[in-house]
Design brief:
- This protein is of the alpha+beta class.
- It folds into two domains: 262 residues, Periplasmic binding protein-like II (D-Maltodextrin-Binding Protein, domain 2), CATH 3.40.190; 210 residues, Roll (Dipeptide-binding Protein, domain 3).
- Helix content is 23%, strand content 22%.
- The protein has a six-stranded mixed β-sheet.
- Helix 12 runs antiparallel to helix 13.
- The N and C termini lie far apart (51 Å).
Length: 532
């Protein structure tokens, strides 16, 4: 069998309370292994308070957020534990290795033989089978599409599970198993009808158990004591998560020591830098962007013409937006593909449509299309980062002849309207560097937001499916995705204004905050320093 194995990683801490060495960083901001990169002693009874988002459910089948990995382990992991950087291939989780059959007909996972759920039952092949089948068949499951390449699950022996694949597909499955689709819940709890979405109880094998949970608002967890298969996690004794949507309020909470870790986007850079200069916070703005901020639209009305969509891309002065509105904490896309250059599936092919600023050419294209004054309605959501640049985009589009109606509505309402097709365009994140591009293909382009018009779907789907062949190497998959990005880019289904940087400012006595995670820091690794 052609094998791919979980990467080995250095264990920097064996138990909470030991000295934690700064593995792999000269980070002088203290956002890695410890402040100043120095050795730091972990407070075994420390509490870390994180303010940003809280999931609506802790059931892995019902919510795609990462917080559930505090309770449930995943079969594989996508990121380097110290920095949170995305790997080129998944590394070991509950599964120590994974291999595809030579003919690509199945994916075989070898499991650890020493892991139990907190209810005492084993994390074995039968438990994995139960969970994957549940994720595929539960009516409300958010992972039905994510696991659509899995045809059936076979238990080979207690430590070996074989996922039989749909013909010609399945290369993306290891990456999907690093997300909520790969989290494993105790079958005992599922058989008992326990509502694990609200109260997981002892149904997980992860480092924490839930003390209290208010969906979307607050989540309190405490460490489960005892040996763990991954001794790097569970450094903090207690984690307190709360939702605060207003960025100013989050930073004020950090300033007043009512929070230990918060999320800050590019537009907060001056404030964050002030907090760092004052010694109130430590952080770094990562160059591994959280996403490609821009405008996504349906190819309807005047935007149905590809020339009009191309003109819109040419009309916007991205450099000015990046430098002023985004405080320089961003970088511009070089081509129209929806990935940053650091991603493994980014294509270096030289025929990719370039991103340019040329308003004269934009006007010429509108004349060529016979629509010199195309109309477009764009929704923005006040208070969100995505609304910060929308007026500038509006002004640039109007400069070349567009008639732009910029409206405001809550993000959840705008998202629902966009998905059902009643909203033409919205300021959003049309390019998200998820571990495997198939995730975005399902949620943004072909499914979910449906940016690709129906008449283009057959060709788009064929190109997307070609990248799912499990017999392809990583580089061959990247080449296949290059074909897809070429198709997407030539048709201008969306506009990426800039890949924006972000940070997770935290109190100086907090360590283990992943500075390069493109979604949120993995709180399993976060800790408070002794005496801090």
């Amino acid at each position: 069998m052609r094998g791919r194995f979980g990467r080995q990683f250095v264990v920097c801490a064996v138990t909470a309370g030991l000295v934690l060495a700064a593995c792999g960083g000269d980070d002088d901001t203290g956002s890695g292994g410890g402040p100043g990169g120095a050795d730091a002693e972990v407070d075994p009874n420390g509490t870390v308070r994180y303010i940003f988002t809280v999931p609506p459910s802790l059931d892995p089948a019902l919510a795609t957020g990462t917080s559930a990995n505090l309770v449930y382990d995943t079969l594989l992991e996508a990121r380097e534990p110290e920095s949170g950087s995305l790997l080129d291939e998944p590394r070991a989780g509950l599964a120590t290795s994974y291999e595809f059959a030579p003919d690509g007909t199945y994916l075989e996972l070898q499991l650890r033989d020493d892991v139990t759920f907190h209810d005492g039952t084993p994390v074995d092949a039968e438990a994995v089978k139960v969970n994957i089948e549940r994720q595929k068949t539960l009516p409300a499951s958010v992972n039905v599409v994510a696991l659509s390449s899995v045809d059936r699950v076979e238990v080979v022996d207690p430590e070996t599970v074989r996922l039989h694949l749909v013909a010609g597909k399945g290369a993306e499955v290891p990456w999907q198993l690093t997300q909520s689709a790969g989290m494993v819940v105790s079958p005992k709890a599922l058989d008992a009808g326990q509502d694990i979405g609200l109260d997981p109880g002892d149904s997980g094998s992860g480092p924490y158990s839930v003390v209290s949970f208010t969906p979307g608002q607050s989540l309190v967890l405490e460490r489960v004591e005892g040996e763990r298969w991954n001794p790097e996690v569970g450094m903090a004794k207690r984690l307190e998560l709360s939702f605060v949507g207003d960025q100013t309020a989050r930073l004020n909470a950090l300033r007043s020591r009512d929070a230990d870790v918060v999320f800050a986007s590019h537009d907060a850079y001056p404030t964050v830098q002030d907090l760092v200069d004052q010694g109130v916070a430590a952080t770094e703005f990562t160059d591994e962007a959280v996403g490609g901020y821009g405008i996504q639209w349906h190819s309807t009305g005047d935007m149905a013409d590809p020339l009009v969509r191309e003109a819109a891309n040419l009309a916007v002065d991205r450099a000015a937006i990046c430098e002023t509105i985004m405080n320089g904490q961003c970088y511009l896309p070089e081509t129209t593909q929806p990935l940053p250059p650091a991603h493994w599936a980014y294509s270096d092919r030289d025929d990719m449509a370039p991103v340019e600023f040329d308003q004269d050419k934009a006007r010429e294209l509108l004349q060529e299309a016979g629509i010199p004054h195309p109309e477009i309605t764009i929704s923005q959501s006040p208070g969100l980062v995505t609304a910060s640049y929308a007026p500038a985009v509006q002004a640039d589009l109007e400069e070349v002849g567009f008639e732009v109606n910029l409206t405001s509505q809550p993000y959840t309402d705008a998202g629902a309207a966009f998905r059902e097709g009643s909203l033409q365009a919205m300021s959003d994140i049309p390019a998200q560097p998820t571990p495997d591009p198939s995730i975005d293909v399902n949620s943004i382009y072909a499914g979910g937001k449906r940016l690709v018009p129906e008449e283009d779907l057959p060709e788009f789907n064929a190109l997307a499916d070609a990248a799912l062949d499990p017999q392809l190497s990583v580089s061959e998959r990247a080449e296949a995705y290059g074909e897809l990005w070429k198709f997407v880019g030539d048709r201008y289904y969306f506009m990426v204004v800039a890949f924006a940087n972000f940070s997770f400012p935290h109190a100086p006595n907090i360590g283990g905050v992943q500075s390069h995670n493109t979604a949120a820091p993995d709180l399993r690794y976060v800790y408070a320093e002794a005496g801090g």
